[in-house]
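Shift notes (night). Ran Permease while the centrifuge was going.
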Amino acid sequence: MKSLLRGSLLSLLSFAAGFLLSGFPNSHPSPWIVLPLLTACWGTCETLRCMKRRWDWYHGGVLLLVYTDLMVLMMLLLFLLYPYAHWLTRAA
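Came back to this:
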């Protein structure tokens, strides 16, 4: 069964969990962020299932939610990978 609400809630709640797990702004390495990342992928797939073939205003709204889900995925990837990027924090 398709549900826009379920897909959006999965993505946003996984972002909140990843935010808490990362300890932002003092990010520390946490491999547990993979779990919210996978949940956000599941939420994005749920949102994509609601896409229609022909364009209308509903399709445009779903597209906006898909872009929101992609932003959540990129932020979770940042939370996951940034603490391991020691070359970015070294002084020149």
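Residues 57-81 form the longest helix (25 residues). Helices lie at 4-22, 34-48, 57-81, 86-89.
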